[in-house]
Design goal:
The complex is a heterodimer of chains A (332) and B (100). Chain A is an alpha+beta fold. Chain A has two domains: 7-12 and 46-75 and 217-309, Gyrase A, domain 2 (2-Layer Sandwich), CATH 3.30.1360.10; 77-211, RNA Polymerase Alpha Subunit, Chain A, domain 2 (Beta Complex). Chain A is built from seven helices and 16 strands. Chain B has a single domain, classed as Gyrase A, domain 2. Helices cover 43% and strands 25% of the residues of chain B. The chains are: A alpha+beta (332), B alpha+beta (100). Chain A: Keywords: DNA-directed RNA polymerase, Nucleus, Transcription.
């Protein structure tokens, strides 16, 4: 069952995963940068402000994984790190409230800020964003009669992320627009209150990385998978064709006008091995994955566009190399 | 100091070294190993994170003739080139995609 082209494949058999017999692993050949650039391709499949899908083709798994890890834990973003609580008479505890606030994604562009020094006592306009949140729940005086709905009875009974107010420090107001700083989503419920409950907080947001705390991670998910491939080895028609179709994700197997099954698009196959359950069709198919074709899925939290996050991640790796090179050059 | 040399190789010449990287892990270790392992003159190259609670990565290089330090530097240069190329290609593709 050898497939003719040069792609390295992993074959998904019933109980095992196998490499092709002539495949000795991609890390076997000598390193050659020219060869790498010749083989390496990037294809962008889907992209908007929050989500993107792209393919890295002909790359080592070590690099693909490094890029993924960098996006998750080393690309910086801004998040609320300190909450000064002047008054909190709501039922949610101070520390739980502070934690909840920390997880709210902020729109502020981390590239325009610096990391706060470890020994710094206070923030400056270059490394800190300050918000205040002052909400008091009261009885709604103009409530309609006979209503028991909280929305009618009380004012401010739900506190949302949109109620935090930016307090520009120093020159910040002239550099940043208010619309570019606050929370990504204004409808995140922070707390519920009843008349007499009150929140009076000041929030301090700083720049950080996901390694320190997941709230600083700029991505909701960043993952990759290998490109699935389905190959038909013989003709399958009639009832068997429908059976074959039902073994895969929708859209993977098509049936033509003569009732013959064909592989339409295996890209979004789940790679389940359902075919092996049926003796009449299990010999008609080869399931495989292309070992050097990585399908990346990057979902941004909202501060940076997903394509910017990827570039930032690679830049971080590049800068690391540069700084280590500088240091090694100082070695004897 | 972000990089230091692990003691113990004083008698084995310049071709065997273990470097200790502070605040680094599999991200850098595996990518670098992947390149250096494929150099002509390298006998052995591997990395380890000795303990998950310590932010350290040990990187071992053994070569036939070339000093290990030189190999390590070359590895960083090549990894930097890979990054540079990836950034350029990716930004070109994004531009193309946005044109459509």
């Amino acid at each position: 069952m050898p497939l003719k082209d040069e792609k390295p494949r992993l074959f998904l058999e019933e109980f095992s995963v196998k490499k092709a017999p002539n495949d000795y692993g991609m890390s076997d050949g000598k390193w050659n940068f020219k060869k790498f650039t010749k083989k390496f391709r990037i294809v962008i499949v889907r992209m908007d402000n929050f989500e993107m899908e792209f393919d890295l083709i002909g790359i080592q798994p070590a690099f693909a994984n490094a890029f993924r890890r960098l996006m998750l834990s080393e690309v910086p973003s801004m998040a609320i790190e300190k909450v000064m609580i002047r008054n909190n008479t709501s039922i949610i505890q101070d520390e739980v409230l502070a934690h909840r606030l920390g997880l709210i994604p902020l729109k502020a562009d981390p590239r325009l800020f610096e990391y706060r020094q470890e020994d710094a006592t206070g923030g400056t306009e270059f490394d800190t964003i300050e918000f205040t949140m002052k909400v008091k729940c009261t009885v709604n005086k103009s409530q309609p009669k006979d209503s028991y709905r909280a929305e009618d009875l009380y004012e401010n009974h739900s506190v949302y992320s949109s109620q935090m107010k930016w307090q520009p420090m120093g020159n910040q107001a002239s550099i940043h627009k208010e619309a570019d700083i606050g929370p990504v989503h204004g409808d995140i419920l922070v707390s519920k209150m009843r008349p007499g409950h009150e929140l009076d907080l000041s929030l301090v947001a700083v720049k950080g990385i996901g390694k320190d705390h997941a709230k600083f991670s700029p991505v909701a998910t960043a993952s990759y998978r290998l490109l699935p491939e389905v190959t038909l080895t013989r003709e399958v028609r009639g009832g068997d064709a429908t059976l074959l179709q039902s073994c895969f994700a929708p859209g993977v197997i098509g049936i033509d006008s003569e009732g013959r099954a064909y592989v339409r698009d295996a890209r979004y196959d789940t790679c389940s091995r359902n075919v092996y359950k049926y003796d009449e069709i299990r010999d008609a198919i080869i399931l495989s994955r292309v070992r050097d074709h990585f399908i990346f899925n990057v979902e941004s939290v909202g501060a940076l566009q997903p394509n910017v996050i990827f570039v930032e991640a690679v830049k971080i790796l590049r800068d690391k190399c540069k700084s280590f090179l500088d240091e090694l050059n100082k070695f004897n | 100091m972000k990089v230091t040399e692990l003691p113990g190789d004083e008698d084995s010449g310049p071709t065997c070294r273990t470097y200790v990287f502070q605040n680094e892990s599999h991200t850098l270790g595996n990518a670098l190993k992947c390149i250096i392992n494929r150099y002509e003159d390298v006998d052995f190259c591997a990395y380890t994170v000795p303990h998950p609670a310590e932010n350290k990565m040990h990187f071992r290089i053994q070569t036939k003739k070339t000093p290990a330090l030189e190999i390590l530097k070359r590895g960083f240069q090549d990894l930097e080139k890979v990054c540079e190329h990836t950034i350029d290609l990716f930004e070109k593709e994004v531009k193309e995609f946005n044109k459509m």
